[in-house]
Amino acid sequence: MKNRSKADRGLFRRRGSPHWWIRFADENGRIRRESTGTTEKKLAREILGKNKTLVVEGRYLDKKKIPKTTFFQLCGEYWETWGKHKRMKGLREMIEIWKTGVGDVPLKDLSQRKIERFLNRRMKKDGISAATRNRHLTMLKAMLNKALKWGMISQNPAVDIERLREKNGRLRFLDQEEIRRFLNAASDCFRPILVTALHTGMRRGEIINLMWPEVDLKNRIITVLESKSGKKRMIPIDDTLHETLHIFPSRFKRGYVFLSPRTGERWVDFKKQFHTAIDRAGIEDFRFHDTRHTFASHLVMAGVDIKTVQELLGHATLTMTMKYSHLAPDHRTRAIRILDTALQTDTKTDTVEKDNSGGSL
Questions:
Q1: Domain ranges across the chain
Q2: Which CATH number fits domain 71-149: 2.60.40, 1.10.3470, 3.80.10, 1.10.150?
Q3: What would the pLDDT profile of 82-91 be if each residue is shown by its tens digit?
């Protein structure tokens, strides 16, 4: 009989099962035997190691005592208690996509391999980008982390799935002449939304959900209570935007800032008005989200530092904002000039002083 390696101790096969099984002791010293659900020895070894780690950290949960929650039940509870309160565009659609891909399986049977297979299938068959895949994965990880906190699962099966490297996104922004044409072509009811977008860099969802209590015209500050990153941010109101918002009669009602001229309710969709203005202005290859690029690009070109631009855009990391850095090509030259001024070194004067002290040229 071959000697079993130390790494394989605790792995065994059970008659009638195609999967590898694991054997380990819980925090009370009781021997646990569980199926890994995989036929791959390497993966089974990793699962064994994770279970041992959970025991050491005091986080191991007996699968027999874990509620028999299904994936659909988790999706429903997550949406009702958490998801529907978040201002995250497309969250409901992403949940439905995961429900279609995973099915109503017991959460304890949801494996890393099954999740990765679904993501790969989406990229091959549906042609989704690496960025879209990463967003779907991030959302699933967040939902499964909630399940972990709620005691529905003993470990998050998606935690070790890595994000894919994303290609640099498009960076289309309007020049000053295009901005002038765009504003002139916009209808009277749509122009205030466009001015707000260009002068704040706010996202579409942040604009249509903006309410008057979040707009401080006296101190000239707009407060975005919950941005895409989940954090509050404050955006100064410049003269142009202040003049635009100050004449709004809706500000006395303290409700939504932008109301549909047709319904008088919150403006949900302005695609028609946007595309009409784009066509009239003769602007090509431009989406509403590109107003954020226009806002950020002109700030950088005007000499505003990247860190400040990051804060105004509400980016979670500085890396996301660095794509605008190339628009300030002379920043290195300015930095060296500042250093030169700070050091105030006059090499010619130093040489003359040495000569006068007895040195020779």
A1: 6-60, 71-149, 176-333
A2: 1.10.150
A3: 887 765 667 8
